[in-house]
Design brief:
Layout lengths: L4 E2 L1 E2 L8 E2 L13 E3 L21 E3 L3 E3 L2 E9 L2 E8 L7 E10 L2 E5 L30 E5 L2 E6 L3 E5 L6 E2 L18 E9 L2 E14 L5 E4 L8 E12 L10 E4 L6 E4 L5 E6 L19 E9 L7 E2 L5 E2 L3 E2 L19 H14 L13 E4 L2 E4 L3 H7 L11 E4 L1
Parallel strand pairs: 25-28
Antiparallel strand pairs: 1-4, 2-3, 5-6, 7-8, 8-9, 9-10, 11-12, 12-13, 13-14, 15-16, 16-17, 16-18, 18-19, 20-21, 21-22, 22-28, 23-24, 26-27
Length: about 400
């Protein structure tokens, strides 16, 4: 049940990745470990490193309990922040933020708004062993723009940080993003907002579930849990808007088996996505791959299709936004690529730039169950026929031209 936060750094995405040197902060601790419930002895009046609700605790059923999930590292206003959440085996489950009093190695302390509780309000959720009122919004994330910062939470909520970054405003009854939900809306997690070329992309992780349709075919959809519905892949889904708060477009699938993402742009403007190699089900649960699972992956994103802002009809008669993030697939798995470009990548990128400058999409077929095909200057996401039938009217929708996807 023990999980702590470690930080790695590297001179580039290629690596080599090494644990940050924390010897000056804690000479006797493991290298790279920047926060753990075991650091409770470092608490001082007016400076909390570990809150009471984050401490390790014991019970007869599970023994030692306390875990931390989904940490993100952010650099904002010349200061390092870590946003993370305490997991299901904690006294209280929910999101919190740490601020460094030094460099990326720390030392980190808890912001004032989390001394008593996680961010936001208690909500229903989690396993039955969680005490009533202990479950809050998980998978907190930080979005910054200029000198302003917002907290983004699971269950579609957000709030602006105070100027001193010690708490959010409001602290309870948080506003919600204006979205176009599925019907019915399944469980989503890993909310994250990324701004690119003046538009806002709201990402979630969703379990794509398989079941048997009435005609005997296999159905794939972002269904709610029910008997006969099995977790198939842990997907990344995305929507786009002109404003941070929304309204956001209908969602589309950005990557199968590549959910729970952070998107970021490097110094050259290239967009990358991290994702979680989820071992619970899907591609990363295969016995031949599980040893490489439960760790982050990273893929390079790119725009494909012609320039312009066309759109195509969505399943409900509305318009699906044309400028969309997307991860094309190779079979039923995500298409992870090394941090460096593959052989021929630079020449391929140059050809794509020339095609975009001419304003005409070049047809390209990608093999596998979900190939991406350019047709008549439009980028259309295709799925297996069984998946198309299963999602009719409510699942992943096609997207128009100018699509950002994994290279």
């Amino acid at each position: 049940m023990e999980r702590r936060i470690f930080v790695w750094t590297a001179p580039s995405l290629r690596g080599p990745w090494r644990l940050v040197d924390t010897s000056a902060v804690r000479p006797s601790a493991e290298r790279g470990k920047v926060w753990s419930p075991e650091f409770v002895d470092e608490n001082r009046p007016g400076r909390t490193v570990v809150a009471p609700w984050q401490e390790y605790w014991h019970d007869a059923r599970f023994g030692k309990r306390g875990q931390v999930w989904a940490p993100e590292v952010h650099y904002f206003r010349d200061t390092w922040y870590i946003v993370a959440c305490m997991g299901d085996h904690s006294r209280k489950v929910g999101s919190f933020m740490l601020v460094s009093e030094g460099g990326i190695e720390g030392p980190y302390r808890l912001v004032q708004g989390n001394v008593e509780k996680p961010f936001g309000d208690p909500v229903a959720g989690g396993p039955a062993f969680i005490e009533p009122g202990a479950y809050h919004h998980i998978d907190g994330s930080l979005y910054t723009e200029g000198d302003d910062a917002w907290l983004v939470l699971h269950n579609d909520e957000y709030a602006r940080f105070r100027d001193d970054m010690e708490d959010i405003v409001p602290t309870t009854s948080l506003p919600r993003f204006a979205q176009t939900p599925y019907a019915p809306e399944p469980y989503l997690e890993g909310a994250y907002v990324f701004r690119h070329e003046g538009r806002y992309y709201l990402l979630h992780a969703a379990w794509n579930r398989s079941s048997i349709a009435a005609d005997g075919s296999v159905r794939y959809a972002y269904d709610t849990p029910a008997p006969g519905r099995a977790q198939y892949q842990y997907d990344a889904i995305v929507a786009v808007a002109d404003a941070f708060e929304g309204p956001y477009s209908p969602r589309w699938t950005a990557g199968v088996g590549a959910g729970h993402n952070n998107l970021f742009a490097d110094h050259d403007g290239t967009v990358w996505a991290t994702f979680f190699r989820n071992p619970a089900a899907g591609y990363w649960s295969d016995p031949t791959r599980v040893a490489q699972a439960a760790v982050p992956g990273v893929v390079r994103m790119e725009w494909t299709g012609p320039e312009g802002a066309a759109s195509m009809p969505s399943d409900d008669g509305g318009a699906t936004d044309a400028r969309a993030l997307r991860a094309p697939l190779d079979g039923d798995r995500p298409s992870p690529v090394p941090a460096h470009r593959r052989d021929g990548g630079r020449r391929r990128d140059a050809r794509r730039r020339r095609a975009r400058s001419r304003g005409s999409g070049r047809r390209r077929e990608r093999h596998g169950t979900s190939p991406t095909a350019r047709r008549s200057g439009r980028e259309l996401q295709r799925e297996p026929r069984s998946a198309q039938r299963g999602r009719a009217g409510r699942g992943a929708r096609g997207v128009g031209p100018r699509v950002l996807h994994v290279a």
